[in-house]
Write a structure and sequence with these properties.
The chain has 534 residues and is an alpha+beta fold. It contains 16 helices and 19 strands. Strands 7, 8, 9, 10, 11, 12 and 13 form a 7-stranded mixed β-sheet that branches. The protein has a 3-stranded antiparallel β-sheet with strand order 4-15-18. The protein has a 3-stranded mixed β-sheet with strand order 5-14-6, covered by helices on one side.
Length: 534
């Protein structure tokens, strides 16, 4: 007699979701993540307050950067985690478009859910999406412009891109000022795209308008006591070495003495050891010594006697950037001075920003290096301004490498959607339905931009669709006036690389989630007790 009870294959702690339930779970997770960040899209998007729990409990962050929001939100749904990872990759690759890529992927899955309810197989949807993606990318490439041959036009393109990127951030009220700062900083790189040469320093006080670009390098440290406060023709030795004398760094070691005189002898031996180390450092013929670690009082005094400027505890990010811009090397041993490459700059001097004293390196070896000092009322404003400016710098650096540009304000999305709809009308079979769904998902981006500004999105999107179908392919959403307008005249420009990456990443992530028909949560591995141990 055959038993009808299904046999359990997986361990008891393991969980499995099959077919429709698994697909529904993926769709719900991804769509929820998309809806979470959708309200931050566009120049009138809203911000989110992120409150930390646990170790940094009570720490508050205010942002509308999609990647920052999703990184802070702990998600348990596997599909939601895919979208979070995708937004982080978008942030690392091109710096902007993190919200757009998440919203587009979520909308694609929302459309896929409707098609599956109509009994269309996921593989047919994927085949239609792939055709639609190719049509969309081709349309975007055809519409892209390249003004890199004309220096004045290209400079204007960069300014417009920075202005468009910053218009949806906290810096939107001062986008003219910060766009000029960002373009100047990126053009100083002379096409290298090495953003680590651009240092951003945040100092509370003043207002955002007080932010400025300094053509040099700023280090947020002070000079040691009785040491020179200004050095010309600086020869800089950059080191990562311990300069403390009062610690015995052998764990568990114990020293026994029979008199205080022996303690004094030990201290003297330590001092002699440190004196020898400082003598080795001075043999490098440097007049500035910058150390990653602390410099204690005795070596600081020795450096002062030798007339050397010594700077301690330069944070590692700062010291690596300093090595880059001065052309020096970070060293840990000092036995071979002839093999060590010193950094150089014309002048090192102290300057005041607000109430803080910083060191100003003028005439560094890497001429393109510069520092942007951001001023603001609170730390939260400074952090968000830093994220916004970083996005603009990343997009500009990407545009300098790949100089093509496209129009923003929903113009490119509507253009791609129109081309996909046209291609769908010429495609036989069920794939055409999937292509139409892809076009509808693209149209949700300008719809969300209009909704977030409080305008009638149905009216604006229908007007925009009609304008594009009549051949006006530069029309987009003018969110300042609540109507459609010519993006070329308004100067609303975006980087081709960013826009292409948004469409490609969203389509790939949505396809990956759509392919899923089973979710298996593995049983946790149990710790095996070592019975042989007493």
């Amino acid at each position: 007699m055959v038993s009808l009870n299904p046999q359990r294959i997986l361990k008891h702690e393991a969980e499995e979701e099959k077919a429709e339930i698994a697909r529904m779970s993926s769709f719900i997770g991804a769509i929820t993540i998309g809806d979470l960040v959708k309200s931050t899209l566009g120049p009138k998007g809203m911000d989110k307050i992120l409150v930390s729990m646990g170790r940094n409990e009570g720490q508050v962050e205010i942002t509308n950067d999609g990647a920052t929001i999703l990184k802070a939100v702990g998600v348990d749904n596997p599909a939601a985690k895919i979208l979070v990872d995708m937004s982080r990759v978008q942030d690392d690759e091109v710096g902007d478009g993190t919200t757009s890529v998440t919203v587009l992927a979520a909308e694609l899955l929302r459309e896929a859910e409707k098609l599956i309810d109509q009994k269309i197989h996921p593989q047919i949807i994927i085949a239609g999406w792939r055709k639609a993606l190719q049509v969309a990318v081709d349309a975007l490439s055809a519409a892209a412009m390249d003004n890199s041959g004309d220096e004045a036009k290209f400079h204007q393109d960069l300014y417009n891109i920075a202005s468009t990127t910053l218009s949806s951030k906290i810096l939107s009220q001062h986008k003219d000022h910060f766009s000029k700062l960002a373009v100047t900083a990126v053009l100083r790189l002379k096409g290298s795209g090495n953003l680590s040469a651009i240092q951003i320093i945040k100092k509370t006080g003043g207002c955002l308008e007080d932010s400025f670009l300094d053509e040099g390098f700023l280090l947020d440290k002070k000079v040691g006591l009785h040491q020179p406060k200004r050095v010309e023709n600086a020869r800089i030795l950059i080191a990562n070495t311990p300069m403390d004398t009062d610690k015995i760094k052998v764990f568990g070691s114990r020293v026994r003495v029979d008199s205080m005189a022996k303690v004094a002898e030990m201290e003297l031996a330590e001092k002699e050891k440190m004196k020898d180390k400082v003598a080795k450092i001075l043999k490098h013929n440097c007049n500035v010594f910058i150390n990653r670690q602390l410099i204690y009082n005795y070596p600081e005094q020795l450096f002062a006697d030798a007339g050397v400027m010594a700077i301690e505890h330069a944070d590692f990010d700062g010291i690596e950037r300093l090595a880059l811009v001065t052309g020096g090397e970070i060293v840990s041993t000092f036995d071979n001075p002839e093999l060590v490459k010193l950094g150089h700059c014309d002048v090192i001097e102290q300057i005041m920003i607000g109430e803080d004293t910083l060191l100003h390196f003028v005439g560094v070896a890497l001429g393109e290096a510069c520092s942007i000092v951001i001023r603001g009322a609170t730390q939260q404003i400074l952090d968000e301004a830093d994220r916004s400016l970083h996005d603009a710098l990343c997009v500009l650096a990407a545009t300098v490498k790949e100089s093509r540009t496209v129009y923003g304000g929903g113009c490119s999305e509507m253009l791609m959607a129109g081309e996909v709809m046209t291609a769908a009308s010429k495609t036989p079979g069920k794939e055409a339905v999937a292509m139409e769904a892809f076009a509808r998902a693209l149209q949700t981006l300008p719809t969300a931009i209009a909704d977030n500004a409080g305008y009638d999105s149905a009216q604006l999107i229908s007007e925009l669709r009609a304008a594009h179908s009549q051949g006006s392919h530069t029309m987009g959403l003018d969110m300042e006036n609540g109507r459609i307008g010519c993006m070329k005249a308004l100067g609303i420009t975006e980087s081709f690389v960013v826009k292409r990456q948004v469409v490609l990443s969203a389509a790939e992530a949505a396809e990956m989630i759509l392919r899923v028909d089973n979710i298996i949560k593995a049983a946790p591995r149990k710790r095996v007790q070592d019975r042989g141990r007493c």
